[in-house]
Amino acid sequence: MTRELLIPLVSCLFVINQASLIHRCDLAKVLHQEDLDGFEGYSLSDWLCLAYIESNFNISKVYENADGSSDYGLFQINSHYWCNDYKSHSENLCRMECQDLLNPDLFSSIRCAKMIVSRAGGLDNWIEWKLHCAGRPLYYWTTGCRL
């Protein structure tokens, strides 16, 4: 491949990849508008920490697990329990297609995450949140954000 073709191709891929990321303060605004601050006793900072620790604020992240299920979107919601990916058995408790969790408007992701948190365990349902966010000072997640 010639250099003249490679540079525009790499630039294009970089732009496509960047489009799936959401800035911390933009996410804070969306989560605040969707009444997640205080939802089931969790602060906006808890939710931001969860999104960062699970997907690094990548709305389109998909992670394939060893058991054949996949984790989708900003909150890495698992296909075995919460959504239907048509590849693995799913309880589909959120009653949605997993692809909906990759939508930039975040409505489906937030609705499903609220359902998960409303069940026993709350945010502890996400092991990474439990390991990296629970019980820690998280005020810095909203620092500098105008809500």
Explained architecture:
It is a single chain. The protein has a domain at 41-142: Lysozyme, CATH 1.10.530.10. Residues 5-19 have low confidence and may be disordered. The longest helix is centred in the N-terminal third of the chain and has 17 residues, at 3-19. The chain is mainly alpha-helical and 147 residues long. The protein has 5 helices and 3 strands; from the N terminus they run αααβββαα. It has a 3-stranded antiparallel sheet with strand order 1-2-3. α2 (24-33) packs across α3. The protein has helices at 3-19, 24-33, 44-55, 107-118, 127-132; strands spanning 62-64, 70-72, 77-78. A hairpin with a 5-residue loop joins β1 (62-64) and β2.
Question: In short, what is this structure?
Answer:
By secondary structure, the protein is mainly alpha-helical. The chain has helices at 3-19, 24-33, 44-55, 107-118, 127-132, and strands spanning 62-64, 70-72, 77-78.
Which key phrases capture this entry?
147 residues, mainly alpha, Lysozyme, three-stranded antiparallel beta sheet, 5 helices, 5% strand
SSE-based structural type:
mainly alpha
* Second rung of CATH, namely the architecture of the domain at 41-142: Orthogonal Bundle
CATH class of the domain at 41-142: Mainly Alpha
The radius of gyration computed from the alpha-carbon positions, rounded to a whole number of angstroms, is: 17 Å
How far from one another are the termini? 47 Å
- Biggest beta-sheet profile: 3 strands, antiparallel
Overall strand count = 3
**Low-confidence segments:** 5-19
Shape, please? globular
Q: In CATH terms, what is the fold-level topology of the domain at 41-142?
A: Lysozyme
Estimate the mean pLDDT confidence: 89
Strand line-up in the sheet with most strands:
1-2-3
Total DSSP helices:
5
Helix content: 25-40%
Strand content: 5-15%
Q: H/E series, N to C? A: HHHEEEHH
Signal peptide: 1-19
Keywords: Disulfide bond, Signal
GO biological process, one term: fusion of sperm to egg plasma membrane involved in single fertilization
GO molecular function: lysozyme activity
